[in-house]
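Working notes for the structural subgroup meeting. M.R. asked for a predicted model of this chain before we commit to crystallization trials. I am recording the input and output together here so anyone reviewing the notebook later can reproduce the run.

Input as submitted:
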Amino acid sequence: MIEIVIFSISPALFLLWYFYHKDRIEPEPKIYVLAVFLFGATVSPLISTILSLPFAFSIYAPVFIAPIFEEASKLLAVYIPYKRGQMDGVMDGVVYGVAAGLGFATTENIIYGLSFGENVVLLRAIFTPIAHATFTAVSAVGLGLMAEKKVNTVLPFLVTAIVLHSIWNFFALIYFPFNAVLLVLNILLLRKLAEIGLREDMEKIDYYLSR
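Returned structure, recorded in C-alpha cell form:
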C-alpha cells in the first residue's frame, strides 16, 4: 500500500515542482498553489464522483460523461486564486491548472492502485498526471485571460479541455497504446502554453520598464 501511495504522489509532486519553477518571472504564492493542489486532490474527485453516480453503469460515461464532471470540478479549484485576485495571465493559468490536475490525478491513481494493484499504478503514474495537468491547464488559461479582461468567458477553454479528455478516454478504452502518442501531444501542448505564458510575462515587464 505504501508503494502505491508513493508511486501515485511522486510524479505529481515532481511535475508540480517543475511547473512552479517555470513561472520564474512572477511566481505564484506557494500557499495558493498548494491549496489548489489539495482541492484538486480532495474536493474535485468527490464532486465529480457524486455527479457521475447516476451514470455509473452507462457504457458512454467514460467518454461523454466523466470528462464533463471531472474538468468542471477541477476548474473549480482554480477559482480559489482567481477569486482572490491572484491570476493575471496565461502562465498563472498553467501553474494553477497543472496543480489542480495533478492533485486530481494523484487521488485517482491511489484509488486505481488500491483497486487493481501496483502494475496499474506504474503505468498510470506516467500517463495520468500529465494528461490531467494538460486538460486543466487548458481550461485554467481561460481564467487567466479572463483576469486580464482579454476574454469574457472561460467556457470555450473548458469545452476544449473536455474534448481533449474525451479523446484520451476513448483511446484508453479501445486502443490504449495510442495514448502514448496523445501523451507526447499533451506534453507539447503544455510546453507551448508555458512558453506563451512566459513570453506574455516578459512583454509585461518590458512594457512597465519602458514607461
